[in-house]
Design brief:
125 residues; alpha/beta; 2,3-Dihydroxybiphenyl 1,2-Dioxygenase, domain 1; four-stranded mixed sheet; 2 helices
Length: 125
C-alpha cells in the first residue's frame, strides 16, 4: 500500500550519509537520486524511504506527531538500525526493547533533522 515515505532535510549530503548507514542496516541501498531527493529501497518494487529538501524552498521542519517506522525483522535487526542511527549522529528517543505484551519490539531515534524514526518487529521474547 505505501510506495514511499519522505522526511525533510536541510542538508541533503549529511542526511544521505546518515541514511546510507541506518537503512543499510536493513539491507537497503540508494534507489533513486535527484538534486533535492534521495530514496532507498531493499528490493525493486518495494516501499522506499526518501529524504528531500522542501520543494517550496523553505526550511525543513519536523511534523508534530509524525513518525516513520521501519520494519526490522528481528530484535537484532531493531538493535542494528538503532545502533547505526546513534553512531551516525542520531539521538535516542527510546532504547530497543519490548513494548507491552503484544510481541512488539521497538527502538526510537531522531535523525539529524529531528525527524522521529522507529525500528520495529513483532517477536515474542
Amino acid at each position: 500500500m505505501i510506495g514511499y515515505v519522505t522526511v525533510g532535510t536541510n542538508n541533503i549530503d549529511k542526511a544521505a550519509a546518515f541514511y546510507d548507514k541506518v537503512l543499510g542496516a536493513l539491507g537497503a541501498k540508494r534507489a533513486w537520486e535527484m538534486d533535492r531527493l534521495i530514496t532507498w529501497a531493499s528490493a525493486p518494487n518495494t516501499p522506499m524511504m526518501a529524504v528531500c529538501k522542501p520543494y517550496d524552498g523553505q526550511p525543513a521542519t519536523v511534523g508534530n506527531g509524525v513518525m516513520v517506522s521501519l520494519m526490522a525483522g528481528s530484535p537484532d535487526g531493531v538493535k542494528a538500525v538503532y545502533d547505526a542511527a546513534l553512531a551516525a549522529g542520531g539521538t535516542d528517543e527510546g532504547a530497543p526493547g519490548p513494548r507491552g505484551d503484544s510481541g512488539f519490539h521497538g527502538a526510537y531515534f531522531r535523525d539529524l533533522d529531528g525527524n522521529k524514526i522507529c525500528a520495529f518487529c513483532f517477536a515474542k521474547a
